[in-house]
Amino acid sequence: MSYQEEYRSKLRSASDAVQIIPKNSTMVIGLGMSEPPALLSAIEDRVKCKELEKLRLYYMHPATPLQDTLLKMEYLDTVDLYPFYATHKEWELLKEGLKEGVKLVNYIPANFHQIPYIMTHDLTLDTCVVTVSPMTGGGYFSTGTSSDYTIVAARNAKRLIIEVNENMPQVFGNTYIHISEVDAIVENTVELPQEPPHKEPSAIDEKIASHIIGHCTDGMTIQIGAGNVPNAVCNKLSQFNDMGIHSELLSPSMVQLIKSGNVNNRLKKIDVGKSVFTLSAGNTEMFEFIHNNPGIEGHPASYVNDPCVIGKNDRAFSLNAFVEIDLFGQVNAEFIAGHQYSTAGGQLDFIEGVQRSKDGISILAATSTAGGGKFSRIVKSISGPATDTRNSIQYVATEFGITSLRGKSTSERARALIALAHPDFRPELEEYAQSQHYI
């Protein structure tokens, strides 16, 4: 049977394709832009009709298709949520559940590089559903925007249902699924989920970026997270050349650095000439740019986020955010008001990996206050689990400066962090530090 004949034999409507999902099932959903809207809608119909008895759902950072279908309060007697990355949607469901005295979100703590291994060794996945690019002449589909855990789950789940979307870019690297691995195919060409445009960086964001940019150099290999401060930093990186990309996230701001010639990847020690990522989120212009682009490669998080791999490039540079940091240097990047609001993602992967790099620099940045100035991000004690231990942190930046904690004593750390706090909170922090004999 030719690849085209095999394709036609597996082609189904969405409602027919999801009939192979068992009544009691453990399912993984492609991440972000690779969520399959037609399949998720058809699965929602099965949930509505009580055709599924229990659906254990494993996923990360839900986009619009998943939020609009299965992540609804009325389905959670059937659908059990197991996110590796919590967002505002899980926060809303969590609050609704607390009103009724039930726990509706079962967050799984893990660093990003561990998740593909968890998918294959610690979970038994009945079904994987994912959006892919059209089939190549050799019988392959690309998961395009998402390698992360998506490609690994697709290859290892007992059942694989794919949604072919002509707008999903074909991306080189480790993103390909063969027709022989597929159980059912649905065709549905729609616009991929779009990331909303980022707000213009504020004056405070720009000030933080100005502190950070002084630690940047030509020839860096960069990992930059999402947000206003990272965007402000990306805008300022146009003054540097011969940079490389080895990043968890590929964003429109980073693609602009490639287009402008600031990134050419020629000085990297591994994946020379390639901008490497594990997931991408953005807009149609970005998706068109990465489509069939030999200078762009997607790879699983088990590779991209492996600290040992990250450290192989010289001058690796990592920029991420935090919710709060205490006077020891412990960082909470996940908990707000006593509940899981975000997750570790790949933050610690890159903090540790970059510091294995020759001349590597890891920076955590945030405004000094939150809640319109009501709360200090430099705190006496963090209010949730430590996302990053005090032993892992290198640079910390706010609008009041940037400091390295590495090599500093506990007293020196406390004084350096107090200096990064807003002046309104410094006296209280200093008094506490003295009472606890930190300083």
From TrEMBL:
One of its GO terms (molecular function) is acetate CoA-transferase activity. It comes from Endozoicomonas numazuensis. The keyword Amino-acid biosynthesis does not apply. It comes from the Bacteria. GO terms for biological process: acetate metabolic process. Belongs to the acetyl-CoA hydrolase/transferase family. Residues 3-188 form the Acetyl-CoA hydrolase/transferase N-terminal domain. Residues 282-433 form the Acetyl-CoA hydrolase/transferase C-terminal domain. Keywords: Transferase. This is Uncharacterized protein.
